[in-house]
Amino acid sequence: MSGAEKKSGRELGEEWWQTAIIEMSPGIIRLRGYEIQDLIGRASFPAVVWLMLRGELPSEDQASLLGIALGAAVDHGPQAPSIAIARMAATCGVGINSVMASAINVLGDVHGGAGEQALSFYGDIAVAIDGGATLDGAVSARLDRFFVGEKDYVPGLGHRFHPIDPRAPRLLELTRAFAARGVVSGRFADIAEAIEADVARRKGRKIPLNIDGATAVIYGELGFPPPLTRGLFVLSRSVGILAHAWEQSQQSERNKGPLPREWLWAYTGTPPRPFPGEDDAGE
Amino acid sequence: MSGAEKKSGRELGEEWWQTAIIEMSPGIIRLRGYEIQDLIGRASFPAVVWLMLRGELPSEDQASLLGIALGAAVDHGPQAPSIAIARMAATCGVGINSVMASAINVLGDVHGGAGEQALSFYGDIAVAIDGGATLDGAVSARLDRFFVGEKDYVPGLGHRFHPIDPRAPRLLELTRAFAARGVVSGRFADIAEAIEADVARRKGRKIPLNIDGATAVIYGELGFPPPLTRGLFVLSRSVGILAHAWEQSQQSERNKGPLPREWLWAYTGTPPRPFPGEDDAGE
Amino acid sequence: MSGAEKKSGRELGEEWWQTAIIEMSPGIIRLRGYEIQDLIGRASFPAVVWLMLRGELPSEDQASLLGIALGAAVDHGPQAPSIAIARMAATCGVGINSVMASAINVLGDVHGGAGEQALSFYGDIAVAIDGGATLDGAVSARLDRFFVGEKDYVPGLGHRFHPIDPRAPRLLELTRAFAARGVVSGRFADIAEAIEADVARRKGRKIPLNIDGATAVIYGELGFPPPLTRGLFVLSRSVGILAHAWEQSQQSERNKGPLPREWLWAYTGTPPRPFPGEDDAGE
Amino acid sequence: MSGAEKKSGRELGEEWWQTAIIEMSPGIIRLRGYEIQDLIGRASFPAVVWLMLRGELPSEDQASLLGIALGAAVDHGPQAPSIAIARMAATCGVGINSVMASAINVLGDVHGGAGEQALSFYGDIAVAIDGGATLDGAVSARLDRFFVGEKDYVPGLGHRFHPIDPRAPRLLELTRAFAARGVVSGRFADIAEAIEADVARRKGRKIPLNIDGATAVIYGELGFPPPLTRGLFVLSRSVGILAHAWEQSQQSERNKGPLPREWLWAYTGTPPRPFPGEDDAGE
């Protein structure tokens, strides 16, 4: 049997797992065409994130702005389900990888999806502007559609807890500074602020940009597609998840429940009843 | 400080975690109002599943039919992502609970959601019939809508691999037998078979009911809402996941990849290139 | 290129994923050698679990006893991390499969491993008896070793909350009844009760068998190896996890935290401080 | 009821979730005592990781070295179970957060734990040196113990695939450069190289440092405890997991199995057999 013929099935298998991300042979690892040893020590961690997701290296400024967005959303405390889950899981006798997995697993549409929704919303407006609409016109038209057909939280605006989310104005300020230096266009910052202003007119009060809206601005400025913003948020929040898991694991609690140990929960169901059709419940 | 006042914060906490499923005090566990020791040995495992999800005990026949559906979908082999993941995870040094978690986690809309979609589809038709439509009319109208606006796999019909899914006719046969004895109405079996017949007329060839369509018939007959069919499928497939995880863990493989160890993957990306702006790649 | 030669790579790939559990070809699914349509409606759900894990069908009595153990441990309320996680995850916008995955993932050594530890402990004693020791002698010797070198919870004994775990005596009673009918030997029940008695003598007070100790008795009587008891516990607790996830999903909460929404958490860390080396913190 | 009395239960609940990581009140978020808006744009992403895990800000050089280690281990291709799982999960209809969770969940003792083991091994030697042993003496004594009582892979040495892991020498070179500038002591680099040399003498051939051994050197130099190196590896590999999940999700595959779609798996179990005690298998 010749080598060429032997390879046939193997080739099919290897094609089944094809990728444009990583190339390997013994002693060689290349990411997106770069030798790994050329990247190590030259590309910053955010630059590696960018390269892996986008295929090309970012400029140093682009990598910095990405790192700023990643660093801004690492934690929002143990009242967030993801962080609470991390802390409880850390007391159950599983590895720190599994603690982290249980926690990031809940960063779904409701807990982790707001940035993705915000960036999609901005993107709709950007498309309208590209098609000739004015900024205010495009924003107004999109909000009209929103308030007719969609639900009543405008993506990226408002916060249950913070009257002003302290992360958002700082992120916008930095985006503007990067735009002033030509790193990004500032277009998504314009869109977000126009949305904020239009909603304020409609509601009669300002509902300020939140962290999801602000990071969506940055990810949009940097050219990331909406679904990746969820992935980037997972990377970011993983840091807080790890920190809380670690802090918890340094304590001696076992099977930490949500409430103090001597508390229970309120039972609201059917009162006690015998098993049906049994005269002698104790058997 | 009086007892009543002390309780106030605790009560709020305990209400935050209220549930109608389980009641506990020291020495006492009640599920849906039944003492746990009265259930143990009297209610079969499927009956306990039913009680927990529905709040009331099923009849013995209802529990049997539920058990039949649960037993039918336990495994479809390691080409299914869930099973492959279980086997790979079992070689990575995590507990069997985490192996199972990684695997059931992927039983999403595409891998695990077909039963839910099928039962929703049947439910739309059932509602139309309740509103006065004939079986064939309701089926035809729903399929008209489907072929205009939705995607081209009719939920519950057809299988990539099996010309006839051997589980489906047997499950229908048993549903009919239970209907003949008055355990269920047979209504969802009628709907599923009418869909199959109508699609055959439209396509000119029979696209037979699959396991998802057939278990959806049973879950519908038994009165489970569509989203629970996904949960029941997870319970069912967990058995196969556990069996494969266990079989794999009895072998000595470490970090089992998807392809034989000496194979790689095809690289399709950018050819090798130097790190930009560096004359001396070794620094 | 001949067919035989073409198959070579494919064969390697197919052997890489070999299994003794399931055989498939178009239209055919066999589990452990049985046609799936022969199993459906004949083997109960616990019997299918047994077949998948052990390779052979159990007797009807064996399947019943397995079902009893599976049904006994389905829930212990939302103060258990697994159940709390299920309820929180259900409010975060992920599928019910992912809700269940996050929850079972934490059934690790501490939260889910007690049954496995108890059965290993019983197994050590059974081996000593097989080697000629008396029941009491083997138990005493194993406990001597335990109290010298291991930690101070005897596996399978005692409960933080229940003075007597109401599930345990009922499970032992049923095990004895099955033993009286010759379904099992009663040997692990003897061992567990001898441990309980010996520990009572040492401590001067009874520390009664708990659910983990009692289900370990049954799994041991039925011939399951210790690591599978964790897997069986996962199957069992998955029922409660699903029930709580479902109940929670019927409510409108979003991002349910562990404490009532208006509460926070106590902060115990470093007091507020300026970013180092900055004169103007606002930049 | 007075405010003080009302707070009592709430205080208990808030203490139950206490943390030294994050402090919040409406409009204010502080991480480890720093206002979040002071950190954003000033602390790099690796610096935020450090702050969250350690409680204090690193120097710029320390943050750089941490970033180097994080960037080095992002991917090792789809033959690694974690990456394969990410790609398969991405075809199953779950969110990217759940895709990532399924994948990082398997970074257990075998797949993700080598760095932790290596750093523990180095730490044993460091302790011996602190107690007065020479470098070579401490290494030799630890290896003696290893080859007597432990398993035959020395933590941090050797690679199944790479004769020389291209990441390791580059990481050591950079560690040495940082040590030369006084950022770190170089002590763990010494230990790792002494282990490599001693093993080469024992085996008669060099078994070179791998990525786990090299990143463990860096994490040790920077003062991270061994269990955190697993968490840091999870953060790092999450980048590759996200990149592969994203690439896969851009394709149209559904339920991607481990082998090409037309392949199956080899069945090695019991041959076909009838259901026992049934004369008419078809019933």
Automatic annotation (TrEMBL), chains A, B, C, D:
One of its GO terms (molecular function) is citrate synthase activity. GO terms for cellular component: cytosol. Keywords: Lyase, Transferase. Pathway: Carbohydrate metabolism; tricarboxylic acid cycle; isocitrate from oxaloacetate: step 1/2. InterPro entries: Citrate_synth-like_lrg_a-sub, Citrate_synth-like_sm_a-sub, Citrate_synthase, Citrate_synthase_sf. SUPFAM superfamilies: Citrate synthase (SSF48256). It is an enzyme of class 2 (transferase). The keyword Transferase applies. Residues 249-283 are annotated as: Disordered. Belongs to the citrate synthase family. Signal peptide: none annotated. This is citrate synthase (unknown stereospecificity). Its EC number is 2.3.3.16. It comes from the Bacteria. It comes from Mesorhizobium erdmanii. GO terms for biological process: carbohydrate metabolic process; tricarboxylic acid cycle.
